[in-house]
Each structure stands twice: as C-alpha cells, then as structure tokens.
Amino acid sequence: MATIKDVAKQAGVSVATVSRVLNDNGYVHGNTRKLVIEAIQQLSYKPNEVARSLFKKKSRLIGLLLPDIRNPFFPELARGIEDEIQEQGYQLIIGNIDEKYPKEMDYIQTFQQNNVTGIITATNLTGRSHYDDLSSPVVFLDRTFNDHPSVFADGIEGGRMAASELVKRGSKRITILKGPAQLQTAQDRFNGAIAWLRAEKVDFSVIETSSFSFSDAEMWAKELFEKYPDTDGILASNDVVAAAVLHEALRLGKAIPEDLQLIGFDDIPLSRLLFPPLSTIRQPAYDMGKEAAKLLIRLINKETHFEKNIRMPVMFIERQTTRKVEENG
Amino acid sequence: MATIKDVAKQAGVSVATVSRVLNDNGYVHGNTRKLVIEAIQQLSYKPNEVARSLFKKKSRLIGLLLPDIRNPFFPELARGIEDEIQEQGYQLIIGNIDEKYPKEMDYIQTFQQNNVTGIITATNLTGRSHYDDLSSPVVFLDRTFNDHPSVFADGIEGGRMAASELVKRGSKRITILKGPAQLQTAQDRFNGAIAWLRAEKVDFSVIETSSFSFSDAEMWAKELFEKYPDTDGILASNDVVAAAVLHEALRLGKAIPEDLQLIGFDDIPLSRLLFPPLSTIRQPAYDMGKEAAKLLIRLINKETHFEKNIRMPVMFIERQTTRKVEENG
DNA sequence: TTGAAAGCGCTACCAC
DNA sequence: GTGGTAGCGCTTTCAA
C-alpha cells in the first residue's frame, strides 16, 4: 500500500501539501494540486484511515448495536441507517449482541477503541448506563433511555390500534401476549392495548412472555391455547410470535379469521408470506433507521435546535388474519 | 481516556514496560508487573486499538461481507462466525452489500483502510478479482471463487436429494425454480436436481429466476402456476422463494401436500413456522459460519497443511409440504 | 530487567 | 503557497 510519503515523492512536493489536497483545506496552487492528484491516481493511493483516526480521534465509522440479527425487524432498521450514513461518507459496522449482556459491553468497548464517530443502539439491557460516559454521541433506536436522543415507534397508539381493530371486527375475548418486561417499547404496546380494552370494558387475558425469539414463541403459542382455548382475538407481541401463534392455531384446526383473529406487530417482510397473510401493526423500520441516522449525524456535527426524541407513526396493515369490517358497523 | 503514558506515570515505570506487560512479552519483574497491573486497573485503562493497529498493520477486526442482511440465512451464518472468532479474541464487523456491486468495493476498501486482519465474504458478484490482491486473507462462504479458500454446502447433492425425495413421494411433473445464474451454489443445486431427474427420466420444467429477494419471489410464484398449472412437485431455489410459492399455491386452492409437494433450500428459522411447515434441504448455516471462521484463523496464523475448500453436508428436513413416503415403497 | 527513542501514516501548526 | 516537523498512542529495537 502506497503511503502519503510515496505520493509526495512522486509528485515532487511535501507530505504537507499532499495532505492539503487530500483534505481540501489550506492554500494549494492549481498546478501543484494537479500534480498531486496525478500521483495519487498513479499509485492508486488510499489514505490510511487508521493513521487518520489516530490523529483525529475520530473515524468514518458508525457503530450499530443490534439485539438479535436473526429477527428480521433489525436488519431492516440497519438498511435504513446504512442508506443514510453512506450518503454522508460514513461506513456502518454492525455488532450483534445476541441478547447477551457481556457482548454489549464488548462491542461498546471495541467501538470506542476503534474511535467510532457515533453509535446507534437498539439493545435492550435493563437500565444500565454505560452509555452515559461515552465520548461519542449515542442514539437509541426502537428504545428509549432516560433523556438520551432516541427514535421509536408509537407503541401506545399501536397497542390501542391493534385492540380496537380486533374488537371492531367482532372479537369478544381477547388474549394479549405481553412481550419482554424490560423492553419499554413492548410495554407501551401492551399498555396501549389494555388501556383501551379497559375503557371499552372488553374481556381480556394476558400471557407473559420474556423474549422475542423464534424458539420460545411456539411454547407460548401452546400455552395460550391451553389456558384460553376459547379466545377469539389475539394480540401478539411481534410478528415472529404471531407466526408461531398462527401456526399453532391452524394445527389445532381453528378457522382464521372466522373463529379467531390475530394481529402482529412490526410488519416484517415475511408477514405477508404467511398463510393466511398476517394482519399487523406496521412499524416503519426502514424509516426509523433513517431518522436515527439523521439524528446521529446532527449530534456528530454538533448542530443545535432539533428534536432529540422522535416518535414515529404506526399503521394498521389489514391482511387476512382479521375479518373485513362490517359496512356501516 | 487514559493512555499508556498515564499508566506508566502512575506505576512509576516507562511506557516500554507497560507495553511489555500488556503484550506479555519480554522480561518484566514480578513486582513491576504487579505495579503496572494495579495502575491499569486504577485508571481502568484500555489500550487504544487504533494506535496498536497503526503500528502492527493488523487489527483485532475481522470483516464479513453479506449480500443481503434481510435474508435470514445470512444472519445465521454471521452467528456462527461470531461465536468462533470471539473465542479467539477477534471482533466481527459486518458489511451489508445489499446486492449492489459498488457497495462491495466500498466495504472491501473500508476493511483494508481499517486494517482488518481477515475477511469472510458471502457476496455474489460475478467473477471479479478484487479479492486477489488483498493483503489480508479471504475466505469465501456459501460461495467459491477460483481456488480461494472456501466453505460451502454440497449443492449438487442437495439438488439430487430434493429431486429424489419429491419423486419418491409421488410427484410426476416437477417444476424447478432455477435461482440466480451467477451464483455457483444455486447452479449446483439446479444441476444436481436435473441430472438426477434426467437419469430417472422424470418430466420437469424450469422457471428462471434472478434473485433471492422477497419482493421478486411472489412474481415468480404467479408465473409458475400460470405456465405450469398442473405441476405436482416444486423445487424452490431457497426457502424465501418457497414461502412465496406456498402462499400462492394456497391462494389458488391447491391442497398441500396432497395435490402439490414443495421443497425449499436452506432451512431458515421461519420455515417451520410456515403453514404447512416447509419441507426443505437444510444447509448447516451456523456450522458453515463456524468452519469459515476456523479456516480464516488458520490462514491468519499462517498454519499449513489443512483443507482449504470445505464442503458441508446437506440434509432433507421432512415437514408437511411433502407427503409421507409409502411403507415398503 | 528496564528505559530511551524511533517510527507506524497522517494532520496541523509554524516558518519561510 | 509550500515545507519542516511535532505528535496522535502504541510497539519494538538497542543500550544500559
């Protein structure tokens, strides 16, 4: 790999001059600049980002922390972030926490030790504050944490929406899968739903769940139908869990949506490929990622006067696990 | 952040000594070592990896290139790699190519500029050779490229297996979704299947497809049933595509597996949550990731005398989109 | 067994 | 406008 010295020698100038044209600052004569650019091309020189980063204490890297890369919701978030930051010349590096606490610490440290310019985190460890004393700005995505900058979907409204759509379409005995207790976003959905159901005096039951993982979901699905065999409307804590419930319901011979309605949360790409296609509350994952990236870049640039906590709208996606709403109902 | 100088001062020794205990090389007296370790703890000092990397021209980072982070197969690969390399003290950084060629170049460059110690790539651009003149070792995963080190599943056997299982269970008019032409692994499956079908003189048709993406898959599913409405056995190029086909088949009122059998490829986590649960050819994604990581680490350590091209076994996973095989059939 | 110092590749200050 | 050079934090000779 050619270094800045090689370029300087080739162009017959000093490294200082090369550095100036590289960073496009300071005075440099048109001819000199041309010389340098030629030399750069001839040697196909690429600046060593490590050396740059050592001096500047900042890199072109942005770190993303994901709780579980296998849940399709999170890759979608990542896509939105990527598209936004690459436009600004940053590169994304993803760390997968795998829902394990020590991994989160490791990655934060790795990010710091490698001088990332900013961090976006979607992890869900309980109220720890390693994020408080970081030198780089942090944005919480699909999460909130004290008054840190954050981007999140409107879970309360989402829960309310899911409950009301279910009841509007005729469900009388709702069952709610509650979602992990330590996850604020999951609790928002839950609280939004039960607040509405209580206000409307609709009968409902609750199944406690502790994760969003594939493997656990089938277990809760079984538990649900054993405990509440005559439920006729289910609010799943997310689409992955909904898929498991759907599967179990069909295995038990339930007619969907005739006997049983089901609404998920997230709207992951596979939801429409399920059978029947899953009705769900859509979180705008891609756009949430984009917003989080924009917010982070503002923080990096030390801009002021912008909204630091962004609530994104959710939307009911009507597919075939819910009935058609009755006309003039 | 404390630096090595601060530690040296605190311990009353030189930075050279601190460096020696940090890297556990050279002579250092027991007492001195203790002093240094205490100082490190008091200051909660973490070495600056950027400075280290600048000197050594090597980091603790391993780069992973994924074609599409949204296809659940790839995150699973990533998990296997992660588990293996973290045991060895490396950290994984993931780059998502999004099936776009320039992004692959960008990431390779970013990886180089940041001195990654090794690269694992699962991307599928057509026969380019940017990988030839890289300073760090490269392992191809779920891909092969010339004689570069690689880890891949036995696609030929997988294709043969899928075809024979379908026929064994009574399908007579097979349709094959071919998969992207530039992807060697996809072509292996295809070739394995048609070789067997020809040898057995079974009737089959082919639908050309050009990607593995969700959005395209439904299109091909429709095309399939329009062109070959009386097909009674389908080999999908992967599970994502199979999900789309399944969905479309049920929409058309086909009885599965009675009228129509279907086999996917990969065995992604959602396959068992589909309805009916998808029969498929399983690639051991997690283990493939682990093997690729092991191979890379051997390359990094400049070991010799080990297998550089690893073919992993595939396996038929019998679920409910295929019929039970007849006893004494 | 330890310390002084050079140097990894780059940026930015100061002189000219 | 341009060049010399200190220094970012670390590792590794080389001397002592």
Structure in a nutshell:
The structure is a homodimer of 329-residue chains. Chain A is of the alpha/beta class and 329 residues long.
Oligomer: homodimer
Overall 3D shape of chain A: elongated
Query: Going by CATH, what is the homologous superfamily of the largest domain in chain A?
Result: Response regulator
CATH topology (fold) name of the largest domain in chain A: Rossmann fold
| Poorly predicted parts of chain A | none
Q: Give the percentage of residues in beta strands of chain A.
A: 15-25%
Largest interface: A-B, 53 and 53 residues
Q: How many domain units of chain A?
A: 3
Helix run count of chain A: 11
Tell me roughly what share of residues is in helical segments of chain A.
40-55%
Main β-sheet of chain A: number of strands, strand sense, barrel status?
6 strands, parallel
> Mean of the pLDDT scores of chain A?
92
Q: Report the end-to-end length of chain A measured between terminal Cα atoms.
A: 72 Å
CATH class of the largest domain in chain A equals Alpha Beta
Assign the CATH architecture of the largest domain in chain A.
3-Layer(aba) Sandwich
Instruction: Return the string of H and E elements of chain A.
Output: HHHHEHEHEEEHEHEHEHEEHEE
| Cα gyration radius of chain A (Å) | 25 Å
* Number of beta-strand segments of chain A: 12
- Biggest sheet strand line-up of chain A: 2-1-3-4-5-11
> Structural class of the secondary elements of chain A?
alpha/beta
Protein name (chains A, B): Catabolite control protein A
Keywords (chains A, B): DNA-binding, Repressor, Transcription, Transcription regulation
GO molecular function (chains A, B): DNA-binding transcription factor activity; transcription cis-regulatory region binding
Pfam family, one (chains A, B): LacI
